[in-house]
Amino acid sequence: MALIAASSIRSCLGDGPRTFAALLAGRTGVGPLRHPLPGPVNVTAGYHVEEPPPGTPLRASTWLAACVAEVLATSGLDPAHHRVAVIVGTGLRELGAVETGDLTDPDRLHFGPAVRAVAPEVTQVLTVANACSAGGHALALAQDLVEAGDADAVIAAAADTMTTSMLAMIGRVADRPTERVRPFDAARTGVLLGEGAGAVLVTGDDWTGPVAGRLLGTGLSCDASHETAPDPDGIARAMADAYKRTGRDPGEVDLVAAHGTGTALNDPAESAALRRFLPAGGPPVTALKGALGHMSGAAALAGVDVALRSLAAGVVPPIAGLRTPLPEGDGLRFVRDAPLSTPLAVAQVNAFGFGGVNAVTLVAAR
């Protein structure tokens, strides 16, 4: 087990506190797509971060640096006096700047200069491009480094912004442009991209500073059964690995922050995997992408940040856009329409990526 000293996110709804407040209020950040070529890519909406405005080079680096600086300031940890490494998870790195010709320094593709601009004394900056579960993989590696004694603390971070290539891909799999993401809804029409970043400061259990929660562990799997389609068996293996690594029974989970992409294949597959482990009428299940869009590599850390706030407040935000749950989710306790107040101690955060790159993280209240 490791401790989480601080957590920070930037989403289309703002920083961590503003994002959580908006989720509880049922607000979403979806709006008209502000990106070149919306017509030809069959995508007309997205979940944009306001600042810096779309079209500004290296936007993902800006959010990432802000999150890294915030967790260091909140925790009071000084990398000049401790061995602090940074692992950045991402789906696309700074590909948007490559597409527009704004990337003049290849090192900026991997976020190293962005991190060192706000934390020059960190020992190393490593980038892990593990699709939509990259933030979860960064967390797993961070915990390994801390528990092995190879670092005093590790910042698990993540960032992604919209790119023309990814917009073109999601536009090709929809008959008509999706208006909003509706996780686990029977009438869901597909996913939309969200933007943002996150950072979680992971320390050993001897940490004496502020504590936002406990990082119990992360289960991983890579089923590689298909280039894009999720596999319920692979997802289930990641869940089983998470329970085994942490010594927790699925019955101890009080909240699930699901991956919930609102796509034809992911939601039934994730529902099937959850039903293997969770009892009918078990823990509440929420999902963030209806409000935040798909934040790609940053999705897992957004889930962790919201889960930590839910654990602290004893309240679960509803799933934005969910009206009629899909049949495959029968028996799961989806949170709909209004926040749910309930005692919470342990949360499960799911993140799954293309090629069956899966990460399931368990966190606990401080």
CATH names the topology of the largest domain as: Peroxisomal Thiolase, Chain A, domain 1
Largest sheet geometry: 12 strands, mixed
Number of helices: 10
Structural class, from helix and strand content? alpha/beta
Distance from N terminus to C terminus (CA atoms, Å) equals 12 Å
Please specify the SSE layout and strand pairing.
Blueprint: E1 2-11, E2 14-15, H1 16-25, E3 31-32, E4 45-46, H2 59-75, E5 84-89, H3 95-99, H4 112-118, E6 124-128, H5 134-147, E7 153-160, H6 164-172, E8 196-203, E9 213-222, H7 232-246, E10 255-258, H8 266-277, E11 284-287, H9 289-292, H10 299-313, E12 315-316, E13 333-334, E14 340-341, E15 346-353, E16 357-364
Parallel strand pairs: 5-6, 5-7, 10-11, 10-15, 11-13
Antiparallel strand pairs: 1-2, 1-8, 1-9, 3-4, 7-8, 9-16, 12-14, 15-16
Helix pairs in contact: 1-10, 2-4, 7-8
Please tag this protein with its features.
30% helix, two-stranded antiparallel ribbon, twelve-stranded mixed sheet, Peroxisomal Thiolase, Chain A, domain 1, 10 helices, alpha/beta, globular, 366 residues
Written description of the protein model:
The protein is an alpha/beta fold and 366 residues long. It folds into 2 domains: 2-203, 3-Layer(aba) Sandwich (Peroxisomal Thiolase, Chain A, domain 1); 216-364, Thiolase/Chalcone synthase (Peroxisomal Thiolase, Chain A, domain 1, 3-Layer(aba) Sandwich). 30% of the residues lie in helices and 23% in strands. The protein is built from 10 helices and 16 strands. Strands 1, 2, 5, 6, 7, 8, 9, 10, 11, 13, 15 and 16 form a 12-stranded mixed sheet that branches. Strand 10 (255-258), helix 8 and strand 11 form a beta-alpha-beta unit. Helix 1 (16-25) crosses helix 10 (299-313) and helix 2 (59-75) packs parallel to helix 4. The mean pLDDT is 95.
